[in-house]
Amino acid sequence: MSQPGSTAPAPGPGRSRQTQIFVDGLGGARPLVPVAPERLQEAARRKLDAPAFAYLAGGAGAERTMRANLDAFAAVKLVPRRLCGSASRDLSVELFGHTYPAPVLLAPLGVLELAHAEADLAVGRAAAALGVPFIFSSQASEPMEEVAAAMGDAPRWFQLYWGTDEEVTRSFVRRAEQCGAQAIVLTLDTTLLGWRPRDLDLGHLPFLRGQGLAQYLTDEYFRSRLAGAPLPATSPRPSPALLRTAASLGAHGRKFGLSLSQMRAAAAHFTASYTRPDLQWDDLSRLRGWTDLPIVLKGILHPDDAREAVRRGMDGLIVSNHGGRQIDGEVGSLTVLPRVVEAAGELPVLIDSGVRTGSDVAKALAMGARAVLLGRPYAYGLALAGEAGVAEVVRNVVAEFDLTLGLLGVHAARDLRPEHLA
Ligand SMILES: Cc1cc2nc3c(=O)[nH]c(=O)nc-3n(C[C@H](O)[C@H](O)[C@H](O)COP(=O)(O)O)c2cc1C
Ligand SMILES: O=C(O)C(=O)c1ccccc1
Predict the structure, then answer these.
(1) What does the alpha-carbon distance between residue 81 and residue 84 come to, in Å, rounded to a whole number?
(2) How far is Cα 415 from Cα 242, in angstroms, rounded to an integer?
(3) pLDDT tens across 206-221, in order?
(4) Which of 34, 48, 69, 264 could form a disulfide with 354 if both were Cys (CB 3.0 to 4.6 A apart)?
């Protein structure tokens, strides 16, 4: 046992990261990606083409919900305690019987090929190197089996969109189980695609170009449907834009062993079937019957929905407004967190939408969240520097969280309480 005052405590991820950056700086090296969230986003904007950045960064309507998410985090204030001897911190979190190194997961983000050619594979490798769970998206750019293989034994969850083609939905769940997913996240807030002016102004929806369809294009049930009516073929004298669309569909078809006309059919079948706006609470019993994995509902904002989830035997909740991409004028996710936590009783509650920094993580945990999902920031890291960029963004958030705990006088992530808030 170490004698108080006689041995230096382990520095922890916060001080290690800080030291590494400053020592690297002595030799003139700068971090791979900007540390400050606004500069990170700005650097990604400069790197990406306009439609890709619009899709990643954009939100619904006048983007008031997106701002509300950031404002909600900005409005919460932390109050430190002094002389608590918090020289090293335990950041770990337990969820559904698994222990993870920090209360941070990587949110499911579709169409990561917009950010980087290695897309989900790069994110999976970065997550695996850090032990941080990666939530595979239904709209991923790489099939879950390949990302799982690239991650070894590292933790992963699977996010499900419940489509009208229930054989496909059920097949996704089965495949996720075979891929070693530790939970199924059912996203409830995207039963319709939100009104997103940045994408509308550019007339740009990636799925119609074959992007973000990897889970579908590799699914035996989805593939068996592709004899159906394809999207109309292009006119006899196609415009350059239509030729680019055909090239994109063709490239994705070659990757997944499908012809151009099958790809047109795939885009059409996906559009017609990826969502079920008529989904209801009673349907959840079928999902419960398909899997023994914990089921986590994503997109909960109302305490009554939290109570209903408890009654329906769900295992966890994610407070989220989908990063402000769905309804303009929705409440900031952090604002409703305490009421959802109270209504959820024993169920663990996670949160996303607006988490940008390590101090945001501390605020969310102090307000009752068990963990947070990091979203857009890691996509920007991916855009700037691939796998290494993702790893660096996550390391920076965890480092700041660790230092914030130390400075607050808290010994473990699980010890954060409302008492640490003003
Ligand atoms: C480009 C992009 C794609 C997304 N795709 C999905 C998805 O496929 N499934 C899902 O449940 N949520 C998806 N989301 C929502 C995220 O999981 C998460 O809720 C959101 O990014 C949180 O907001 P923030 O990134 O601003 O913090 C997506 C978000 C973005 C920005
Ligand atoms: O872009 C999104 O936020 C998203 O999750 C999605 C998923 C399916 C169709 C359209 C959007």
Answers:
(1) 7
(2) 56
(3) 999 999 999 999 999 9
(4) 69
Question: Of all protein residues, whose CA lies closest to atom 15 belonging to ligand 1?
Answer: 322
Our answer to whether residue 302 is catalytic in this structure is no
Whose structure tokens read 């990643």?
56
Q: What percent of the chain has pLDDT over 70?
A: 96
Question: 193 C-alpha to center of ligand 2: Å?
Answer: 7
Measured from CB, residues less than 6 Å from any atom of ligand 1 are: 55-56, 107-110, 137-139, 159, 187, 298, 320, 322-323, 325, 352-355, 375-376
Q: Look up the pTM and report it.
A: 0.97
SS3 186: strand
Torsion angle of C-alpha atoms 326, 102, 162, 301, degrees rounded to 10: -40
This model of the complex carries an ipTM of 0.99
Mean pLDDT of 169-198: 98
Segment 19-73, tens digit of pLDDT = 999 999 999 999 999 999 999 999 999 999 999 999 999 999 999 999 999 999 9
Average pLDDT of span 315-342:
99
Residues whose CB is less than 8 angstroms from the CB of residue 168 and which lie 6 or more positions away in sequence, other chains included:
216, 219, 221, 222, 273
Distance CA 402, CA 420 (A): 15
Asked if CATH classification 3.20.20.70 holds for the domain at 34-197+276-420, the reply, yes or no, is yes
β-bridge mates for residue 98, sequence order: 95
